[in-house]
């Protein structure tokens, strides 16, 4: 946040999709230090409770039940992932819509439905299937990543983008790229092909640096 010129003191809430450690490390300290409530499903809370410590506030989320925070409307929807009650989010504000889909093993009709008509899409492009299969992960982990409740490959990400792209789509952010089993160029090429003539700007999120602030309001 500091690196992109934003102060954590302006934070109003923390939303968590599921309990896997790459998503919750630091959640307890941030919520405590800035006195902000945590929003996640009961299932997520149950699974991470031991590692969180005291929370200044907790608001339970349920798939399909939107929450309003300031001028944001945040709707969680269920995702196919090997966690307890995992969700992803659709965020709406001032007539703009941002569709998020990371940590999911397959592209379901519900996911495609939730991401329709978005101004910006934040989608997972986790791995290249050939790199994963030829790479150093143990056999069981390779199977887990590729399972129906694992992570989206570049191709599956492309499927999702092809199904959700429309003339009004302005920005696509590729997220949750594996540093071991993917290459940013492969993820981007596949996503661009899937988008076809759609002129959306593309940004690749990195694990080791913040993504720049993006304006998705109409030109
Ligand atoms: Zn996960
Ligand atoms: Zn994850």
Nutshell version of this structure?
This protein is an alpha/beta fold and 219 residues long.
Shape: globular
Name the beta content range: 15-25%
Class computed from helices, strands and strand pairing: alpha/beta
How are the strands ordered across the major sheet? 4-5-6-7-8-9-10
* Ligand names: zinc ion
**What oligomeric state do these chains adopt?**
single chain
Provide a descriptive summary of the structure in words.
The radius of gyration is 17 Å and the shape is globular. The protein has 219 residues and is an alpha/beta fold. The chain has a domain of 112 residues. It contains eight helices and ten strands. A seven-stranded mixed sheet has the order 4-5-6-7-8-9-10. Helix 4 links the parallel strand 7 and strand 8. Helix 7 runs parallel beside helix 8. The two termini are 26 Å apart. One zinc ion binds next to loops.
